[in-house]
Amino acid sequence: MDYLYLIIGFVILLSSGDLLVKGGVALSSHFKISTLVVGVTVISFGTSAPELFVSLGAALSGSPDIAIGNVVGSNVSNIALVLGFTAILLPLPVKSNSIKFDWPVMMGASLLFFAFAQNNLIETWEGISFLVLLIGFMVFIVLKSRNNNNEEFKKPNHSIPAAVGLIVLASIGLYFGADLLVGAAKNIAIGYGVSERVIGLTLVAFGTSVPELATSAIAALKKEMDISVGNIIGSNIFNIFGVLGVTSIVKNIFVSNEALNFDLIWMLAISFLLFLLMLPLKKAKLHRWKGFILILIYSAYVFFIFSK
């Protein structure tokens, strides 16, 4: 039954994430926010909602390794797997704003997470700091976009009340989907003798990254390249500032030495690699060969996790 619950959890998360994205995009059109900002905020936060519910549920149920592993594993898979696959599907142009502003914020968030974890604990005050930084980041890029935006907006597919309704419905689905996913993953881990840390870094992290994968791939096929890249960078920022912020405020999160000395190092290295792959600043592009490199690195990452 655990495998059935796992599949049901994945399906609910994917469907709910899709509804959340549709509602968020409609709201962004009403409020005239650029597609890049939509990708970094509304869509990325929407597709990161599963990580929030999974990590929060895992922490409350006494599984800190899944809570931390889910965030770290999702950030790694978002870049190496999701962007890698999307770039192979269709090369992705990268706007200079993503390199000059969005990536530094993501890298700064990752380094701050690493610094806070040095005492093996993400505490309440650190979670509050994360949330304050997230709010500041959101306010800044939205105001910047509205002041400098010359983009023409399409008519929203949903009214504001309908969009809010989609978001509420999706949030309910995400809660129940995450609950099924965490419970099934824990039982499978125990049954096969695999640690919760490994399950969190791989299976759960991939499951909660499915919305990012679907959204980025679909956006690329629809030629909405800003959404593809912005979605991933924004999701990684939200995973740290939002997911860890909320979770650590509700309950302090223990960070194992293994997570600190191995998992977080991989996350930092892959985040920095993304910057190198987005160069040069002028006419930056994630070509197919760069996508293959990212996929190979993700494969190596998974191999090392299971071989440790």
Largest beta-sheet details: 2 strands, antiparallel
Structural class: mainly alpha
Number of strands: 4
Q: State the helicity in percent bands.
A: over 70%
Give the strand order, joined by hyphens, for the main sheet: 1-4
Shape summary? globular
Please tally the helical runs, counting DSSP H or I stretches of 4 or more residues.
Answer: 10
Q: Which residues sit in consecutive blocks of at least 5 with pLDDT less than 50? A: none
Instruction: Return Rg in Å.
Output: 18 Å
How do the SSEs run, as a string of H and E? HHHEHEHHHHEHEH
Averaged pLDDT, please?
Answer: 82
Share of residues in strands: under 5%
- State the separation between the terminal residues, measured CA to CA: 29 Å
Protein model, in words:
There is one protein chain. The protein has 308 residues and is mostly helical. It is 82% helix and 3% strand. The protein contains ten helices and four strands. The strands form two sheets. It has a two-stranded antiparallel ribbon with strand order 1-4. A two-stranded antiparallel ribbon has the order 2-3. The mean pLDDT is 82.
